[in-house]
Amino acid sequence: MSVMTSSSDFPDQDDSPEEFLRYLLRRTGGLVTAEVVATARERLGIPRSTLFRLAARFRRTQRASSLRPMKRGTHEGAVRLDPRTERVIAEQVDSFWLKKEKPNVAALMRRIREVCLTEGLSPPHRSTVQRRVSELIPISAARKRGEREIEAASTPSPGRFSVAKPNALWQIDHTIVDVIVVDEQFRRPIGRPVLTIAIDVCTRMVAGFHLSLEAPSSTSVGLCLLHAVYDKTAWLDEREIDIPWPVAGLPEVLHCDNGADFRSRALSDACREYGMKLQFRPPATPRFGGHIERLIGTMMGAVHLLPGTTFSNVKIRGGYDSEGRANLTLRELEKWIALEITGKYHQRIHSSLLRPPLSVWRERQGEVDFNLPSDRMAFWTSFLPGDRRRLLKDGIHLEKIRYWSDALSRDVGRGTELEIKYDPRDLSRIFVRQSDGRFIEARYRNLAFPPVSWWEWKHAKKMLRDQGRLELQEGVIFAAIAQQRQIEDIAASSSARARRSIKRRPIEPGHEEHSPVTAIDMAKPIHSDDDTEFWDQ
Where are the stretches annotated Disordered (predicted)? Predict the structure, then answer.
């Protein structure tokens, strides 16, 4: 007895072939009856033998997709290559191509061809080798080849980094700014400055920044934090910027990468002293510093519109004359960046917050602890490199320079070592810690000597030693620096390196109106007046 009554019981003509077959086989319990064979041949033109194979697959899966005709030719994933050739390809990809030297596919092809000919095998086609390479796991291959950018792009990062309140965590980092600045005297290019910048992760507010021609160091980190921690009203007034920048206070956690400047003892001691936890992200994982990396990318994107930009790479720059178009000094660039931060970045709707960072900060600033360090000098000097030196009758000796302050007189003859701090940008003074924990300033014992930087001092000593002068005195070294500066001054009109050296010199007393960018807010602190007298001293 047939289970099929009439063609009117069949599915519509618009149904796909596999749906029609599924209907037939479901009606017969998966059996290929004579009626099923006749109907399938009449309506779909499927031979009897093919129908039996399709029915067998359908009984295993019960899915309509199993009734689709198989494609002719080699199935996807099937390998027709000689197994010995496959072995050669696999061995050479692993031992030769997956190396830090990053050989290209052409070199890999030559190596595979050589091995195949040696073993009497037919070399594979280039497309076969490229297909085997493309089948590798991208992140694993990029890690073995040392391709950081590809590894970062291939690494999944589904998580989201969130912080409970403002000033709970700041991220900080350095970058070389993609623009060439000019000197103030000749208005000629002197190079690209370094930007140190910090962001509050909770509100996405820029906490502070520091701009200089010096290489990144714990000193530049300290100057950035000095700008970030204290009230910025006076700093903004000095630059004639009438836009609020209310971020202030100490962060609970300072999040940074593993650079030597963040691993310095001076920075770790300073963070411990002021209750800031120094937290490092895993090595070679920029995604763990995504907020500061994105901020830097935003700032550099804005900088690319300035005259003298170097763009992000040589290919994009093309034939643009960056040095010839440069016209901003370091101080002018600093003001421009401050306006970009306060007037644009803080005011725009952030894609993650869906609100302007400034609005989020104002809404939540009641959660911020504004108990700032009362002694700004102590706070800043805590980030400077330091040492311990014995106080002698003629003062404290550091790098063959003698320093003195009348405040040290009472400690002469005691034979104790004193902790000192020094600013590598200006060796004309050091900071000596007293027994009460406060720092006093000691200057050259010979006040006729000009201010010099650590870089100038080391360079002059090396030059003299290269000349065979092993016994060096401070007067000889200062004389050598004076000669070097004279040479630089003569060469400054034509040499960017000489102009950069001049710009990095410390400022002599009496010329503060042309002072370098320091990012230090000299305004009075919010909670204490005690350190005002100290600054006056």
Answer: 498-537
CATH number at residue 99: 1.10.10
For residue 261, the tally of other CB atoms under 10 A from its CB is 18
Its pTM surpasses 0.90: no
Helix (H, G, I), strand (E, B) or coil at 426: strand
CA 54 to chain centre: 58
- Within a domain: 61: yes
Sequence-separated contacts (24+) of 18-25 with Cβ below 8 Å: 18/64, 18/65, 18/67, 18/68, 19/64, 20/44, 21/46, 21/54, 21/58, 21/64, 21/67, 22/58, 22/64, 22/67, 25/55, 25/58
pLDDT mean values, one per 10 residues, the chain (537 residues): 46 61 72 74 72 70 62 60 89 89 90 91 90 83 76 56 85 92 80 93 94 86 90 92 94 89 86 90 64 91 90 81 87 93 94 92 89 83 86 88 88 82 86 84 87 79 78 80 76 68 69 46 40 33
Domain boundary among 338, 372, 406: 372
Same domain, 280 and 410: no
Tell whether 199 and 279 lie within a shared domain. Answer: yes
For the chain, the domain total comes to 4
Contact by Cβ (8 Å): 200, 167: yes
Structure token pair of residue 421: 């701090």
| DSSP, res 180 | -
Range of the domain at 126: 83-154
Check: CB of residue 188 under 8 Å from CB of residue 499. Answer: yes
Count other C-beta atoms under 10 Å from residue 269's C-beta.
Answer: 14
Contact 19, 68 (CB under 8 A): no
